[in-house]
Design goal:
94 residues, mainly alpha, 62% helix
Amino acid sequence: HTGKENSVLQDYLWEKYAIFLLFLPARAPEWNPMEQVWTSLVQRLRELPVNKCREVAKETGPHLSAYAAIEIISGITYEEVKQFYRGSGLVPQD
């Protein structure tokens, strides 16, 4: 998949919303900012207080993982997202 077949979509997104599609090479996780997001999510999951998880588990039952994900994701700041992109080399350092 080279992205060439998406030129109409690319043009539309750029003209309408100023969104630029960037196709990353296969098997290059170091260039993918989502890999840094996953690393951050796992780290934060490990840092969730066990007592809070137990308390929430009583209320949410099997939905504890969804609750944990919501808590973690909602805590990610705009600055952290920028850092994920900078760390992947897709955005230049300030």
